[in-house]
Write a structure and sequence with these properties.
Layout (H helix, E strand, L loop, with lengths): L1 E9 L2 E7 L4 E5 L6 H11 L15 E8 L4 H10 L8 E8 L4 E5 L2 E2 L2 H11 E4 L1 H6 L3 H12 L2 H33 L1 H14 L5 H13 L1 H17 L4 H18 L4 H27 L4 H21 L3 H65 L8 E13 L2 E10 L7 E2 H4 L2 H15 L7 E5 L7 H15 L3 E5 L3 H5 L3 E8 L6 E6 L2 H12 L5 H17 L1
Helix pairs in contact: 2-3, 5-13, 6-13, 7-13, 8-12, 9-11, 10-11, 12-13, 13-15, 15-16, 18-19
Length: about 550
Amino acid sequence: MLRELRVKNLAVIEGATVTLHPGLNVLTGETGAGKSMLVDALSLLLGERAHPDLVRSGAERAVVEAEFEGVTGVVGEYCEEAGVDLDDGRLIVRREINQSGRNRAWAGGGPATLNVLTGAGERLVDLHGQHETQSLLRAGTQMEILDEYADSRYALNEVRMAYARLREAEKREAGLAGKVDEVRKRVDYLRHVAGEIEEATLVCGEDDSLAAESKRLANVEQLTALVDSLVETLDEGEQNAASILGSASRILDNLEKIDDAVGDWKDAIGSAMAEVDEVARNAREYLAGVDSDPERLRHVEARRDLIFRLSQKYGPTIDQVLTTGQNAREELELLDTADLDLTQLKAERERLYSELLRKTERLTKVRTKAAATLSTEVTGIISGLGLPEGKFNVELYPRTEVTGAGAEEVVFSVELNAGMPARPLSKVASGGELSRLMLALKVILAEQDAIPTLIFDEVDQGIGGEVANSVAASLQKVGRSRQVLVITHLPQVAAVADHHLLISKDPSGGVARASVRELSDVERVSEIARMLGSPEDAVVREHASELLSRRKKAG
């Protein structure tokens, strides 16, 4: 429930706090006092686009803040999912609009995106104004209203899921069929690629080993000379490493006789001599294996050239060349099982389509039954809302193609005068008639609707006389199960309210200032008398008192 709305520096409103209560709340005031600005303020909290010109002249920013209490159920779940903190079921949302064009929003004490504000707001408040009345002309809105009335959310969700599964199956089938067609167009090329790469019998890393072997084979003479020199230096030359280490070892023998502390040095010399012997032995073995082999060199270079060409075409690395070959073989293998796979996918698609039809048939039955009762109920209400001969119809027309929304289109039509054919709302209903139809729908949907707060912005425009009494009774009925805020100019509506708020504008100081306050019973008599046309006339005031007394008696 909306507990409090606080507005600062928004257009004519310098600062206003509106405290709301359960039941029917009405907001009245002179034309131009700023009643609609409060609705605009709520719209901003519901994610409406903000413009810098909304900021009051002379102020840097406008601030709109609302406090909701008793936030539980689906709204509480949404807040938890969105990371919005609640304080014992209490939620505060806030929005700032700056002259610079920078806007900020908060929810539950932390920064929030407009999407979060919109998501929370649309679950807390149903704001009904002229824009929402026009939405009644849209087929999508009409279907939503029927589904809400029919409580067909489960059946509709089943249809949506069945449709999604069907679409996914169609996508898989079309994807495979397209891929098969593509492979068939490229089959000769794929066979060439797969055969060429397979014939090469490539091995990962062989390009590096071949490069090293090629370098050795191309430099055999230099390798031989260098290894010969190494062997001679180690143990064959006149001054070789082995003989030098031997001399050092003998010297250490004599040193050790004098000081055995140098024994460790001798061990080190021994290790060095063993290492030199090992290197010399390896060098001789290496030298024995080095041989000039022009044929092998030609083979290695040819192999390297093959790898280079394949890498240029399918690489650049051997790994990537092999992957290309594997992909080509897999595409070719696709043709081997394509017919069977396509047959299975077709059967799955047909099964899912049959399942979708069964789901839509159930949804159609629910909608058809609800359409008849909704038509009867709305017709019964609008007869008292200035359309005594009006007849409301909810009609279902088969779609040319079943979708996730079902197998039918929903069309609201109305017969405004007896004997005249029913026609779609968009072709026959005026703005006032649409408002009354929407009000009738809201009265009926109030029991199904989980949104705790309904706001009507001059839904009674263009209405008077006995019809105004019917409108007032309808709004009063909705207020018994929901918190309702009505911006009205009808004294009949104002009189039946549980709480009456007055917005007034003070032009003193050269700058208009709007303020809001709740009226006492005595003050309500004066305001309703003003709405009746003459606040000072005793007869009019008596009429105002009578209207108020009717509410008390009805209550």
